[in-house]
Amino acid sequence: MKKADEHTEPKKKEPEQKQEVVIHAKGIKKSFGKKKVLKNITFDLKKGENIVVLGKSGQGKSVTIQCVVGMLQPDGGELEVFGENITAMNDDELKQLRMKIGFLFQGGALYDSMTVRDNLEFPLTRVLKLKDQKEINKKVEGVLDAVGLLDAIDKMPSDLSGGMRKRVGLARTLIVNPEIMLYDEPTTGLDPITSREISELINRLQRKYEISSVIITHDMECARITADRILVMDDGEYIAEGSYKELEKSDNEMVRSFFNEPS
Amino acid sequence: MEAQQELSGWRKWLEGIGDYVVFFTRFFRNIFAGGFEWSEFVRQCYEIGYRSMMLVGITSFIMGLVLILQLRPSLITLGAESMLPKTLSVALVREIGPVITAIICAGKIASSIGAELGSMKVTEQIDAMEVSGANPVQYLVVTRILATSFMIPLLAIIGDAIGLFGGFLALNFTDSISFSLYFNKCIASLDFTDLLPAVAKTVLFGFAVGFVGCYKGYHSDKGTESVGVAANSAVVTASLWIFIIDAIAVQITSLLFYK
């Protein structure tokens, strides 16, 4: 296995203390037709914590976070976000909840008919209903500065590279100050250097905005840099849980297969 | 096994109807939900109306021209050559203008809306709007359907005028008729019962073009191939709806005005 880079140490585990649980999932089940994708998903996300979910493609990692944000309804189990049962929410309650959750899609999901500025203004004017253009500009420039892309403010998404699109996507979700961030494969399709930059950016933003995050990935470098805790998913359930260093020494063959992959 | 397949076919069909009803309800509820997207509506009116004007204009001009050339020999045989402007204006305003404009818009606009929303669906842009707490139906669907319902009648009226002008030129290939006399004859042969039903049905045509385009794009599957399928299916379904609406509208108009 490749040695951990000296410059980007794995995240050190914070001392255990009683922390508020922001996402509580217990026994979540989800099927598509006859295919059972989630069989028994149980986890808690604490405030300010970064959880990384590792697993092979097609195992339902993304389905889990889509259930958290109400894009999909679980077939069974308990799913509470900020102490409220998401499955029992009506449209307005769900909308209110979604304002506190940021979701970074795999490709960034930028609105391709709008410039970067318009992409960032969209949630401010439609979700937060801001009217003051000065305040809007300040927020847009502030968040673009935080992701290091202030120069790209008037570019179209088609003029941006994959990494830049993800950064802008990240900026667009952060602009409404979410308390939870859900990252769907944030480094997939990027070169190793950009992947590391994105992973470090996730950490930096987590510290700056005090966000709790669930990061879906199969990029071990990303997991090493960002994870406070790692959950390993196989066949619709979590088979292992622990810090990067703990799981590195796991006896479970499936878990070891991730750590033995060249990253 | 065969019975089961038939049952599943019926179920799919019924589910499709249900999806249409749900989508229509969402559209209708969002018109009055507040926070209307005026700037996007105006942008769509420009995209749909202004950008289609040339195509509708050329087609209508040719239709007017060709209709005169086709009608002239028959009307000469009947000794009714002087009826040419009247015949053309009634045919163009009541039926040919609205239907041709709507069919052109089904090909150009329904497909482009279907492809645009389909591609937004594939690249998760619609999901991104939804999970951010914004309202994609209000921003993408309401604006487009209202823009087509508003602009296609305007395009049809402009198309009618250009078609009549095409007819005027065709008449002047062989005969000589002054511009004012020709248009006076055209306008004099039209009344309220020609104009109102024609405009009313183009509003419905516009609605069908926008609604079908949005529905097909919004409900496309997640795959690049599905963008093409959404665009293609939007054109076919919208064109079919235009003819169905036309048939019903003509029946209603006949019952109300031409007893």
From TrEMBL, chain B:
Signal peptide positions on this chain? none
Does the keyword section mention Mitochondrion? no
Q: Which Pfam families match?
A: MlaE (PF02405)
- Per the record, what is one GO cellular component? ATP-binding cassette (ABC) transporter complex
Return the InterPro entries for the record. Answer: Permease_MalE
Q: Does the keyword Transmembrane apply?
A: yes
Keywords in alphabetical order, please: Membrane, Transmembrane, Transmembrane helix
Q: Which GO terms describe its molecular function?
A: phospholipid transporter activity
Give the transmembrane region(s): 53-76, 96-118, 195-218, 238-258
Q: What's the protein here called?
A: ABC transporter permease
